[in-house]
Amino acid sequence: MLDYLRLEVRRTLRDKGFVIFGIGMPVLMYLLFTNIGTGPGGAAMGWKVSAMVGMAAYGALGAAIGTGTGVAEDKQLGWLRQLRITPLSPLRVVVGRGLTGSVTVLPAIASVLLVGALVNGVRMPAWQWAALVVVLWLGTIPFTLLGLGNGYRLSSQATGLVNTGCLLILSIIGGLWFPVEAFPGWLRSLAHWTPANRFADLGLSITHGGAPGLTTVAVLAAWLALFGGYAVYAYRRAARTV
């Protein structure tokens, strides 16, 4: 199991596309949002902190959903068929893929937080930095399941397109790029029920020195159950055809 996990992590981190778009893009967007067009004094510190959380969440969300693209490619290449003749049970294969997604989100989170501290001068106590990494890391689990479901259910070409669409829609409507306060009333109400918005709220609550609210946890738990059910259904369909 550990050998399989190490293999999948190495494969992911060797992917130049993941390094450029999964890690580099959130950092670039964070710097653009907080340092261009803000005047000589730069953006206010409050915006730098909230944008840091939003872009860290965006990078983590992209890495988590992107796990499904690798699953679809493995399915097309016959890698899943090879795994079925190894001692690994199907459950361990799925768990290994899920753990891979959980591990590969960490560089995306850490890179944005590092830029926030070193470039934008964001200052917080050590416990807040650590707690921020942990809650953002754990909060990616529903999105990893969504990506896995897409990967098991769809072809490799379709998975890439659907995952990109999911990432953009969830990020924009969830307020990871722009504050939801700037949205029209109906869209603002909708945004608060999206998983990406509540995912970012996990991090924002830590930066404010508090714990995530019960509503945030409940909404994320509901999405976790929904995406988890979808992943199980998709895997069972794939198991009958691969």
Would you kindly provide a brief summary of this structure?
The chain is mostly helical.
Plain-language structure description:
The protein has 242 residues and is mostly helical. It has one domain (2-241). The protein is built from 11 helices and no strands. Helix 1 crosses helix 5. The longest helix has 33 residues, at 45-77. The mean pLDDT is 83.
- Given the structure, what is the number of helices? 11
Number of domains: 1
Distance between the termini: 21 Å
The structure class reads: mainly alpha
Shape: globular
Strand content: under 5%
Order of helices and strands: HHHHHHHHHHH
Percent helix range: over 70%
Low-confidence stretches at least 5 residues in length (pLDDT < 50)?
Answer: none
Number of strands: 0
Largest sheet geometry: none
Chain-averaged pLDDT? 83
Radius of gyration: 18 Å
Task: Give short descriptive properties of this protein.
242 residues; globular; mainly alpha; 0% strand
